[in-house]
Amino acid sequence: MRRDAQAVILLLVGGGMLRLAATGDYLNYVKPYAFWLIVPAGIILVAVAAITGWNAWRAKKEVDDGHGHGEPKVAWLLLAPVVGMLLVAPDALGSYEAERTGTVVGAEENRSTYPELPDDVDPVPITLLDYASRAIFDEGATLEGHRIQLRGFILYDGDEPQLARMVVACCAADARPVKIGFEGEVPANLEPDQWVEVVGEYSTRQGRDEINGELVPYIEVESITSIPTPDNEYQ
């Protein structure tokens, strides 16, 4: 590949990484701590692009007119996927992926004890993963007697709406959903990928995920309220 093409690709990739960091869109792909890896990497790529471009310009000046090597212009086609990535950056994973992936809550998540929830907070905001773990492995012992607040997006298991959120260990490539079923009165106009806040109480009801057969806990719904999509959609 021509060195000037290399410089442009490096510049676009490095600049794209810095843009993702500046806008916060990097959270669609990786955990928040990766910010401190993305920014230095983007700066290094931009610096290497500048050096490569300078060297390419100097080399071109030293070549007599008509005596260039005539590198194939097809190498510039390598820019297409890079430009496409910058112009059409995919969104965070949502209901489409969650409906086709088994819940992350499995036997390997089991713990023997869970800390008590605060008595002076009502409702108590906890993550979906924390709720599911307490409901399944602690049989709701630390959930009973508390009103719980959960936030996630809507997906559908057949005709039944569920609350979900993608859990990532490192990046979107390893994302898996945690799913919570609804018991009680549920609004009829819930849409897939709609972000909601659910307030309710622990329910003893449990189901099975059709994808991997793991248990899916339920919550007794008191209210479901639409909320804006959070900056960080993953847990």
TrEMBL record:
<dbReference type="InterPro" id="IPR015402">
    <property type="entry name" value="DUF1980"/>
</dbReference>
<feature type="domain" description="DUF1980">
    <location>
        <begin position="142"/>
        <end position="234"/>
    </location>
</feature>
<dbReference type="InterPro" id="IPR052955">
    <property type="entry name" value="UPF0703_membrane_permease"/>
</dbReference>
<keyword id="KW-0472">Membrane</keyword>
<keyword id="KW-0812">Transmembrane</keyword>
<dbReference type="Pfam" id="PF21537">
    <property type="entry name" value="DUF1980_C"/>
</dbReference>
<keyword id="KW-1133">Transmembrane helix</keyword>
<dbReference type="InterPro" id="IPR048447">
    <property type="entry name" value="DUF1980_C"/>
</dbReference>
<feature type="transmembrane region" description="Helical">
    <location>
        <begin position="33"/>
        <end position="54"/>
    </location>
</feature>
<protein>
    <submittedName>
        <fullName>TIGR03943 family putative permease subunit</fullName>
    </submittedName>
</protein>
